[in-house]
Amino acid sequence: MPDTQVNMDNLSGALRRETVKKNVAAIHISGKLTLLQRKLSNVLLLNAYDALTSAPTHTIDARTLAMMVGYNSNDFDTLRASLRALAETVAEWDMLDEQGRQEWGVSSLLSFAKLKNGICEYAYSPALAQKLYDPKIYALINVQIQRNFSSGHGLALYENCYRFVRTGSTGWWALDVFRKLMGVDGSDYYGSFKHLNAKIIKPAVAEVNKSSDILIEPEFQKKGRTVTDIRFLIKGNPQKAMFEIDDEDGVRNLTIYKTLRQQGVSDRLARQWISEHGEDYVREKLEYAKGRDGVKSTLGFLSAALRDNYQAPEKKMSAVAGPSVGEAVKRRTAEQEQQDKEYEARTVERTERARRLAIVEDLVSRRNPTQRDADKRLFLSGLDNDLDREHFRAHGWRSGLNATKIFEFWEELEPEAFT
């Protein structure tokens, strides 16, 4: 989340902006969240947004939440740990109101969270909820776009730049504040601008420009030969325009929108899915999700079906012709049973791979920047073709093409990591 400040040089831990006339609040959140924790924070806010200032608490199916973020849907230990991290994370703001009066405040990011009977219930403090609800202060992150990020630094930079997309620039940030936003404050290694630029700024900028709906360019301010401040110029990425979550096309009047709402999907998420995938695609996946036996969470299954394009077995079968209706039905039933078995096997495989990838991300998050860099170099040196290497450079430890090798690599480093 952004951290912008009125022009008061001696206010500790604050960010400067170019003019105090802009009604942009400074909401600074500790940068030391992992990539998955950042994604979790954004999904929770998206789910709560429409009732952010009117409802004291918010709820979401825990399996749906896990699947949207990228956790294994049964890995409640990881989900609990991430919710605990958000409750322990401090949000701080420093702003001017419309009358030019200064306001400073601090709050935990989540005032509470609990898991009970498969439901996640959580809340924001009233003061923070008011700040997050104001579109001039906080811009919602599109959950489809955030899935593209493979590094916490890239997503953190995207979050902090996207808030300022309408003004075209973040304004100048002192390097100490930028380090804080990226979660590398207190590191002697990143106290050097050379290291900060090579290991944090350049890779994060490259990932934002490749993976998101904005293009950013860093600019630096010097005092003598020393770089003291940084800002980012921002413009839309014409190749990856963000899906607009508005109702100009009368989305709320669509039957599929009303059906989604009846299934417990929030207003904003329903509109996002329809805008992202189209009315027919969402309807097809909703019908498929309804027809599945043994699905504990229709909403969670639907989220996965939309994301991974689950196909109904009957849609894959060619028309059955035969000497009798009875034989055709038997053949169709046998084919459907086989395809169901294949589908279940693929589901188990996807679930296990997601579980292992989440473990890898957790392992990576525990290592210091120097170790992470060494791990990547070591892994790259073991890849034997250009396609694998390029895919890993683009997607990091979430490279599906290299998943098997990634698991083998980390299993060698941490023998009991996946047990």
From TrEMBL:
Family: Belongs to the initiator RepB protein family.
Domain Initiator Rep protein WH1, first and last residues per copy: 19-161
SUPFAM superfamilies: Winged helix' DNA-binding domain (SSF46785)
Spans through the membrane: none
Gene Ontology terms describing biological process: DNA replication initiation
Name of this chain's protein: Protein involved in initiation of plasmid replication
Region (Disordered): 317-345
Pfam family, one: Rep3_C
InterPro entries registered for this protein in UniProt: Initiator_Rep_WH1 (IPR000525), WH-like_DNA-bd_sf (IPR036388), WH_DNA-bd_sf (IPR036390)
GO molecular function, one term: DNA-directed DNA polymerase activity
Basic and acidic residues compositional bias, start-end: 328-345
